[in-house]
Amino acid sequence: MSYTAPIKDMLFAMEHLANLEQVAQIPGFEDAGLETAQAVLEESAKLCESVVEPLNIAGDTQPSSFEGGQVTTTPGFKEAYQQFMEGGWQGLQHPADFGGQGLPKTIGAACVEMLNASNISFALCPLLTDGAIEALLTAGSDELKATYLEKLITGEWTGSMNLTEPQAGSDLALVRTKAEPQPDGTYKVFGTKIFITYGEHDMAENIVHLVLARVVGAPEGVKGISLFVVPKFLVNADGSLGARNDVHCVSIEHKMGIKASPTAVLQYGDNGGAIGYLVGEENRGLEYMFIMMNAARYGVGMQGIGVSDRAYQRAVQYARDRVQSRPVDGSVAGSAAIIHHPDVRRMLMTMRAITEGCRAMATTAAAAYDAAHHHPDAEVRKANAEFYEFMVPLVKGYSTESSLEVTSLGVQVHGGMGFIEETGAAQYYRDAKILTIYEGTTAIQANDLVGRKTARDGGKNAKDIAAQIAKTEEQLLASGTAAAQAMALRLKNAREAFLDVVDFVVGKAKASPNAVYAGSVPYLMLTGNLVAGWQMGRALLVAQDKAAKGEDVAFMQAKVVTAQFYAEHILTRTTSLRDSILAGGESTCALALDAF
Amino acid sequence: MSYTAPIKDMLFAMEHLANLEQVAQIPGFEDAGLETAQAVLEESAKLCESVVEPLNIAGDTQPSSFEGGQVTTTPGFKEAYQQFMEGGWQGLQHPADFGGQGLPKTIGAACVEMLNASNISFALCPLLTDGAIEALLTAGSDELKATYLEKLITGEWTGSMNLTEPQAGSDLALVRTKAEPQPDGTYKVFGTKIFITYGEHDMAENIVHLVLARVVGAPEGVKGISLFVVPKFLVNADGSLGARNDVHCVSIEHKMGIKASPTAVLQYGDNGGAIGYLVGEENRGLEYMFIMMNAARYGVGMQGIGVSDRAYQRAVQYARDRVQSRPVDGSVAGSAAIIHHPDVRRMLMTMRAITEGCRAMATTAAAAYDAAHHHPDAEVRKANAEFYEFMVPLVKGYSTESSLEVTSLGVQVHGGMGFIEETGAAQYYRDAKILTIYEGTTAIQANDLVGRKTARDGGKNAKDIAAQIAKTEEQLLASGTAAAQAMALRLKNAREAFLDVVDFVVGKAKASPNAVYAGSVPYLMLTGNLVAGWQMGRALLVAQDKAAKGEDVAFMQAKVVTAQFYAEHILTRTTSLRDSILAGGESTCALALDAF
After folding, report:
1. Residues 6 or more apart from A217 whose CB is under 8 A from it?
2. Is the per-residue pLDDT at B18 higher than 90?
3. From the list A170, A442, A514, which residue is nearest B342 (CB)?
4. Scanning every residue of chain A, which has its alpha carbon at the shortest distance from the alpha carbon of B555?
5. What is the mean pLDDT of each run of 10 residues along chain A (596 residues)?
6. CATH number at residue A274
7. Are residues B125 and B206 in the same domain?
8. Domain for residue B514, yes or no?
9. How many domains does chain A have?
10. Which domain holds residue B551?
11. Which residue ranges does the record assign to the Acetyl-CoA dehydrogenase-like C-terminal domain (chains A, B) (predicted)?
12. CB B592 to CB A441 under 8 A?
């Protein structure tokens, strides 16, 4: 059952929700209008649909394997990566100065979604490379940039992010990897890193590890962490590869999903010390790492959207083909394709509405990123940066938590066949479960949303967004259609629930931190739900207008229906979340520790 | 990380919610009081904890395998089954007349939960045998009973249920397996059955297949389906095993979970016809099958509760051990065990509250089953039968859907380690996904709840239950504690939401079937949530009373906290479900078919 990239919906979101034509007015993005977007998406779709997606099941049944320090990836991955590289896809969003194509994230994000819909395991390699590129762009010296950036941006070399250690996962204060300064300005790195995605593989000739470590004598905790580049192979002055560095893969993990993506344990310095190069200044590693993390978090959100769409498409195909039972409304005499059954519709519509809502949210967030980084006006940059910062935990947290629901429904639509591995639906269910964990668990995203994004500015940014949502409600009410009325009502309820919780968070974060943080993930789910629903409300306004004008009527009507479904089935969840957050803070932490 | 059967909570539910002492007054159950229950549970726990649970991971890593028509189960399963059999566990709930122990379901269900918490794959074999026993007890001739029942009840032979065919899953009207009457009164059976759990294995010397087939010339659809016994080995007049029957396993499935449990494709009649024996009358097969199904559905509900408890216990153990980050309330200086973090608490409490709520619901349902089948007073039997019938789709549907959430949270508590297979948490997530599918998907349970259990009697039974819940609310309000007030409020909101939906279902089932059935699964989730919450409300009343009297204070206080958490975090979900059901019927089915 093949994958078709949802180009039309992506372009709709870019054009009508993210205002791509406005993005294309930012200096440097002049060529990045709708036409470019369409051409890029079509090319990307070709590669994803015909090269990358067909390897997805093989990646599951013939995972990456480890022997003698070497990782062999799934047959076909190396060749596909070669095509990815030759197409210039790694450089899509990166600066032209270093060989990239310099396209806005608004367009690039759609390509990331497609790649992940096709094959999360494959897509992880470029995603990690993106993180390394971001870190070097932000904080790397000219020399580091000159040595590494071009090769990373072409995709000839890949990147990896080395944060986690056995005792240090979410809590990076506990990092123990050690860096000893050398007389020549380099460092020798010693330690063990675990859970390193594509930390070792055979798809590229070099791997550029970005490594958190503690310089000898540095302060304890997060203030003593520095960031280093540690290449698998040292690089000679002429850019050619030199000696093998002292970093070695000692094993890879046996995981529930994303099996083609090797998850390495890397040992640094067992033979005298791995040579590392400081990125930026000593003890500022966490700050730089957050830049990588923020890019990666957004990317993981796109993974959630991608796998959701893929699960949806497979479920639709199955529901059209599988004949079973008579429809309850008697519309078909005898047994019918199960897509005629209301509960199958409910499942498919839930999958569809969540996926489109999250895509709409992520696309508008991407446009904010572009403006935040490239707009000539500092005020515009600042406002967009605030908006984008608020969106990152939502894109990451809400899209990935929702992907668990969507991929579960995908299995469920298949009935018993969904549980049989050959069908393919189960793989999405297994793959998706990592998305709520890596690059910061949902709780970590929620802490960010509560602490840095809501409480710190007294809820100002949150309330600004609520005010924008209220404007969309007014427009919906003014339009007068039944679908718009339904959306306005549910948006209003959800926005009011959101504001109740914002007040609770802001008011109690200091006095009752346990009660507030007990509600942090529900708050994230409420907010993500609301913001995605808001974008669906905006989409509804555009679509009903277009449909009335006879433009692309089938697509536009479908958007209206999907938006109304989102309002009535997904936005309605927010009031219950509010109730549990406001009422339930105390009971969450009330059980005696030894009673568990 | 070992499993400890929750004997105390099981006995609490039996004693205080299901009123076991009253069950023990029913003729035949005189010995089945609390003392017996405790002794049985302790023995069962020994077997489960020390023999069955330790095989669970091996069942996943060394699944049942198929070669040359033979299935070899996971190493150790055969020996464990021997111990299970020798302990008399298969006969626990079956009549003493045929060698069983004749204990009430109220006690037996707890043993089923333990077995499934330990090892779902293993527990499936006895669960299927139970179904075969039920069918023969209900509809088998004396001869069939004499030939098969005793061996099934000892566990020397096992049973299987053969419903599904490639084209006939939820829709049994499409069954094509054919039965040709023979002059000697037997039938020759021809056809292919798929998804047959323990349809072939090496743990017992014979397998008694209960098979749905169509007698030649029978009416089309479900009214032409008959039920047959088709033994793997024919049985001689003296009870010894005779010739191999013409039913053969041709393959087993490669599944996402419950891998130790062989899921067979069975071929009937390739060599002249499998000899089958009619159960009951021709063309009444579906009716008998429903008896098996109802028993099995309840059993699958217990599987959901079992795997939820197991996932909870493993997550608690990990959360106590794993040290990471500083608590937000500053209660620990430096990094602490993650059980100190509010979001980890929220996840653990959610797992705990749902598991206890479902257990409480299932235990009270079991007591109703016992009274419905064995009480001397016909009125009492009838009232309990109605209650039990209403409970079956809830125990099956709500407990298993909830187990998806619970096992997902179980992985999440483990962070990255949860995604690594060796940890064990991922297996529960994979195993649980079948529970919402087999023995009738959640949609099938929901159709049953809407159609036969709610609309058919105009909502009478549903409203009777709501009236009982209202009485519990009054008791809670009268008690005056904060926990009881919180519970009363949330129960009231949930009950009112339930009644709104019952009116909607009853009022619109005929006129707007699509809108009603679009809300069927949300209605099931609302109702299961409410009924489990009601039992938690009753538990709260008992527990705060006991705690006040100084009886078993730690346990009773924990029950109060867990019940309050259930009220504030789980019961609060019902109002959103109501809103989506009442508003969302139209948008669910509004999308044009070709727009998906």
Report:
1. none
2. yes
3. A514
4. A595
5. 95 98 97 97 98 98 97 98 98 96 98 98 97 95 98 98 95 96 98 98 98 97 97 97 98 98 98 98 94 90 98 98 94 92 98 98 98 98 97 98 98 98 97 97 98 97 98 97 98 98 97 97 98 98 98 98 98 98 96 96
6. 2.40.110.20
7. no
8. yes
9. 3
10. 458-596
11. 466-591
12. no
Nearest to B416 among A349, A437, A593 (CB): A437
Q: pLDDT, tens digit, for every residue of B156-189?
A: 999 999 999 999 999 999 999 999 999 999 999 9
Minimum CA–CA partner of A408 in chain B: B433
Q: What are phi and psi of B24, to 5 degrees?
A: -70, -5
Biggest CA pair distance of chain B: 84
Which of B283, B315, B344 marks a domain boundary? B283
Which residue among A115, A140, A165 closes a domain?
A: A140
Residues of B in contact with A575 (CB under 8 A): 575-576, 579
Q: How far is A405 from chain B (nearest CA, A)?
A: 9
Q: Considering CB atoms only, which of B170, B320, B421 is closest to A415? A: B170
CATH number at residue A21: 1.10.540.10
* The pLDDT value given to residue A291: 82
Instruction: Please choose, from the candidates B495, B329, B324, the residue with its C-alpha nearest in 3D space to the C-alpha of residue B413.
Output: B324
Cβ within 8 Å, pair A419-B174: no
Rounded CA separation B71/B65 (Å): 6
A412: nearest CA partner in chain B: B437
- CA triplet B269, B271, B275: central angle to 5 degrees? 50
Q: What 3-state DSSP class applies to A182?
A: coil
- B43 carries an active-site annotation: no
> Which of A343, A540, A553 should one mutate to test binding to chain B, selecting the residue with the greatest count of B CBs within 10 A?
A343
Which of A439, A473, A551, A586 is an active site residue?
A: A439
How far apart are alpha carbons B264 and B505 in whole angstroms?
Answer: 39
Contact A171 B335 (CB under 8 A): yes
Q: Does A91 touch chain B (CB under 8 A)?
A: no
Span B543-550, average pLDDT: 98
Name the percent of chain B lying above pLDDT 90: 97
The CA distance from B72 to B262, in Å, is: 9
Q: Do B270 and B180 fall within a single domain?
A: yes
For residue A140, the model assigns a pLDDT of 97
Burial class (CB within 10 angstroms; exposed 0-12, middle 13-18, buried 19+) of B147: buried
